[in-house]
Amino acid sequence: MIKNTLILSILLLLSLNLSAQDILGKWKTIDDNTGEAKSLVEIYEKNGEVYGKIVSVFNPAKKSAKCNDCEGKQKDQPLEGLVFIEGLTKNDDVYDGGTILNPEDGKVFRCRLKLEDDKDTLQVRGYLAFFYRTQYWKRVK
12 vs 15, 19, 56, CA distance in Å? Predict the structure, then answer.
């Protein structure tokens, strides 16, 4: 009886850990206005929170661009390598409680990430009061 309970507990913990890791990895960002792929982003976990950084920018003219309109530690930092999603934690089937930075204008929004049913699409939503903007990123395998 104890052995079965132990095995069941281990399987439950593993399944919870795997579901939490579903959003981690590399994603191709898709512009919600043009439908074009813009960059490659890595979503990762650090100290129990989820972060996102730009790995590469697809437009050759913007490869050396910097976050000129950003404030604080991100001011004038290169877009490639820029951490622009910070401090999200898992809350049921979404990750929220953190922020997302729009490097094009330096504005910071509350952020929510949610994995779509196909597991290869990530819903990325930035909030400002009652207004929000949503993008759908595609998993890079």
Answer: 5, 11, 36
3-state secondary structure of 11: helix
Residue 16: pLDDT over 80: no
Residue 17 lies in a domain: no
Share of the chain above pLDDT 70, in %: 85
Q: Do the domain assignments include residue 56?
A: yes
pLDDT at 21 over 80: no
What is the token pair recorded at 45? 């976990």
**pLDDT score of 14:** 43
Number of domains in the chain: 1
Distance CA 140, CA 45 (A): 17
Residue closest to 126 by CA, chosen among 82, 91, 67, 86: 86
pLDDT at 86 over 80: yes
